[in-house]
Every structure is written in C-alpha cells, then in structure tokens.
Amino acid sequence: MTKTIKLAISLIQDDLEYKDLCKELFEMQYLSAKASNLIMTYLYADKQQEFLMKDEGMDVPNPKEMYGKSRMTYLYDKMSEMMPGFYSANISQTRAFVETQFSKDIKKGLLKGNVSLTNFRRDSALYIHNNAYSIFETEKGLGVKVSLFSRGKSKELGLKNGKITFLFPHMSVGEKTTVLRMLSGDYKQGAGSLTYNKRKKKWMFAMSFTFTPEECTGCNTLIVSLGEKVLLTLSVRDSGTMEEKPMKWKDQNVPGLEELEANQQKFYALRKKYGNCSRVASDTKCGKGYKKRTERLVALGQKERNFRNTFNHKISRYVVDIAKRYDCGLIQLMDFSKTENAAFQSWAYYDLQEKIAYKAKEKGIEIMAVSSEKE
Q1: Phi and psi torsions of 120, nearest 5°
Q2: Is residue 229 classed exposed, middle or buried when 0-12, 13-18 and 19+ CB atoms within 10 A define those classes?
Q3: Contact status, residue 362 vs residue 1, Cβ threshold 8 Å
Q4: What's the mean pLDDT in 97-109?
Q5: Strand stretches in 199-268, DSSP E
Q6: Alpha-carbon distance 79 to 92, whole Å?
Q7: CB neighbour list of residue 3: distance below 8 Å, 6 or more residues apart
Q8: What stretches of 83-161 show up as alpha helix (H) in DSSP?
Q9: DSSP for residue 86
Q10: Count of alpha carbons within 13 angstroms of residue 117, beta-carbon side
C-alpha cells in the first residue's frame, strides 16, 4: 500500500542563501512545466498518428523505427535539453510522471473528447527520484538532503556536495512516526516532490512510501449508518450467525453532528456576508477589480474545504478504531446520501467513504457499500 506525507521544510545549510535558492527553484518549476507540456504534446501526437494509421489499416512502426532509439530515451533527451542544470534522476522521474499522467488521460477518454490533455502550470511540482533524497536525524530534529542540481550547476552555485539540506521544523506525532519508519526502513521510500505553498509562503516536500497492510482476522461486521440526532450510528453483527453484538452506548453513536451544524451555519453566514460585500467595494476592502473584492470569499472557500477534509479524517479514524476494537473484519457502509437531516445536504459523503476505505485497508479490514439497509 502506498501513501504520501507532505511536510514544510526550512533551509539549514550555510553555502547557499535562501533567496538565491528560491530564485533557482522558481526557475526550475517553470522549466519543468514547460518540458512536461512539450512531452505531453509529443505523446498525444504519437497516439493520434497511431490511431489514424490503424484506422487506415497501416502497420504502426515501433518507437525505435520512428526515433532511432526507445521512446523513453527519446523523451528523456528532449526533457534534458529543456531542463539544463537538473539532476539527471529527477529528469527521469519527471518523464515517468508525465507518461503516467498521459496514460490516465487516455483511460479517462482523451481521444473521445471526454477530458482535455493535462496542462502543467509554471508553479507545478518538482519531481524528485527516490534515490535523489535521503532522510536524516540530528539533534535539531529530522530533515532531508535533496539532490536538485547537476554537477556543473552545483559548482556554479558553490555547493560543496551538490545536495540541499532541509529540516522539518514542524511535525505532528503521527508525521514524525511515519518519517522515522521511513528512516529505519520499515516503510519503503518512494518518489518525492517539491512545491511552494503561496498561502503559507513555505516550500513543501512530499514523500511517498510503501508498506504492507496489517492482517485482520476479525469475524464481525461493523454497520455504519447516518444518524438523526447523532452523526453516525454503529452496530456490530457476527458475520457467521448474523446476530447483533452488544456495544457500549458511546461506541454506538459517533459524535460530531453539533460541530458539523455549527460550522455549516458559520460558513453560510460568512459566505452571504462576503458575497454581498463583493458587489460593491467597501471602505475596509477597497478595489475596483472583481478579484480584489472577492478575496475573502475565495479564502473562505478554502477554509471550508480544509474543515471538511479535517472533519472527515477525524470521523473516518474514529470508525476504523471502533471496528478494530470490536474485532471486525468488514465495514458495511449504508447509503449516506439518503437522509432528511439538513446538516448532511452539503456534506462530502464520497470523501468520507474514501477516507474510511483507505484507513480500513491499512488495518486489513474490507469495505462493502450497500444502497439501502437490508437486514
């Protein structure tokens, strides 16, 4: 099973100024996006030509006949020309990501017109090969050393060993545990990426890791339904005899309905207030442009999405913990969309189900969704 952890980083080495590093990274983001868009165009053109040749009954030449080399090598060479100064392994990682994204576009119906060709923006992520970074631990805390530049570019910037050293300044207990498991080898380190968070004004480093899910031998089923006076109601049933299992009252009812209703009312009131204010510039929020007048409304939307994400993470973890506590090997999710409770009308049902599913998978618990309650 593969997951990703994303952490803020801070520069801790002395041979490179932070402003100089930012300048180089922003330029690398631009060059990487430009090269990625070019490769997407090449892949799309090749696929279109292949489609037309098959339609005409012609034999489709293999990549070596077309380019004189393998397609992978050809695309890598093209990207290398447009990404000077990049660490070679990271160029390969970027190429692999672009090809994977193109395959996803094809599966979604690119050639049928169902989706558009993916376009990479100039602030897109910098993709890092799993061999191009290493985690370390010092008295100051956990950090990461990343190879970003080629040997020639490293000498130009005055880097001693060609690696940039970052520290993870802020980590939760869970995040620290994950990074330590990656450091010890319990979790297999995967590819990484470097992005800039404009809101936090910080660089963020994401690391993928792979691990083996736990084995679950539970013989019970946890049934999850929407409640009326509580958020969710839980019940446990023996998978063999189909008999109900006794549960503690507090374990049968998932809390959070009051929190959900309070936040929904708060967001609704603020959305109405900011929406009215955006029509005409006020004394406190001057500006003739639409973008300036709607800044608070856009920021509110992000806060609302953040709340939903955090809230669903908390609820999904609670449900999976209850399943483990009552020895359940299966979680049965009833139809969350069928409710008369107004608080659930704008709730992210699918997101919650997805979060329950992957958290359960980590514990070896299976998931089954049903359209209606059938005893």
Answers
A1: -95, 125
A2: exposed
A3: yes
A4: 93
A5: 202-210, 220-226, 232-238, 244-245, 253-254
A6: 9
A7: 208, 209, 211
A8: 88-107, 151-157
A9: B
A10: 15
Residue 54, helix vs strand vs coil: helix
pTM of the predicted protein model = 0.77
Number of C-alpha atoms within 13 angstroms, CB side, residue 113? 0
Among all chains, which residue has been given the structure tokens 């679950």?
A: 216
What phi and psi values does residue 328 have, to the nearest 5 degrees? -100, 130
CA distance 225 to 27: 50
3-state secondary structure of 143: strand
Determine the Cα–Cα distance for residues 305 and 307; give it in Å rounded to an integer: 5
Structure tokens, 365:
């618990």
Tens of pLDDT, residue by residue over 282-327, are 555 555 566 676 777 878 888 888 888 899 899 999 999 999 999 9
Residue matched to tokens 């397609």: 71
Residues 6+ apart with CB under 8 A from 1: 210, 211, 212, 213, 361, 362
- Say how far apart CA 225 and CA 332 lie, in whole Å: 9
Cα distance between residue 271 and residue 331, in whole Å: 36
